[in-house]
């Protein structure tokens, strides 16, 4: 007479436990990386709208929530205080953004020749960088 086989629970091998654990760690790492990239990109796009469009971090608005109609880096409120045109990124037409003139070059964004009466502010900047 044959004896019935008793069923014994099959325990997972250490290899399969490590494999599942590795997959779980990889999934968490991918999720965390995705969240970091998402929030970093969202914050950068919100806070530096002008930078993304001009490639110049100097012209990023001081307060991201304020409107910058011409995306020159000066908010419409700043443009009103300065008397520059909020619809034109380069009010005086000298090839420099209004924010570059105000924050970096320290020239008058309403006068194309505020640094030197013989040169436009753009020409003056190029001459200084030589």
UniProtKB/TrEMBL annotation:
It comes from the Bacteria. Residues 78-130 have a biased composition (Basic and acidic residues). Residues 61-130 are annotated as: Disordered. It is found in: Secreted. InterPro entries: Ca-binding_acidic-repeat, EF_Hand_1_Ca_BS, TSP3_bac. It holds the Pfam family TSP3_bac. Keywords: Calcium, Membrane, Secreted, Signal, Transmembrane, Transmembrane helix. Its main location: secreted. Coiled coil: none annotated. The keyword Secreted applies. The chain crosses the membrane at residues 20-40. This is EF-hand domain-containing protein.
């Amino acid at each position: 007479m044959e004896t019935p086989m008793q069923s014994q629970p099959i325990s997972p091998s250490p290899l399969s436990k490590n494999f599942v654990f590795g997959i779980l760690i990889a999934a968490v790492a991918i999720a965390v990386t995705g969240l970091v990239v998402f929030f970093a990109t969202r914050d950068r796009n919100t806070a530096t709208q002008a930078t993304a469009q001009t490639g110049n971090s100097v012209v990023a608005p001081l307060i991201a929530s304020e409107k910058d109609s011409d995306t020159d880096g000066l908010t419409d409120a700043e443009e009103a205080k300065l008397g520059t045109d909020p619809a034109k990124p380069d009010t005086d037409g000298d090839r420099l953004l209004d924010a570059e003139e105000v924050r970096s070059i320290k020239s008058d964004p309403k006068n194309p020749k505020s640094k030197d009466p013989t040169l436009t502010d753009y020409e003056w900047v190029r001459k200084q960088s030589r």
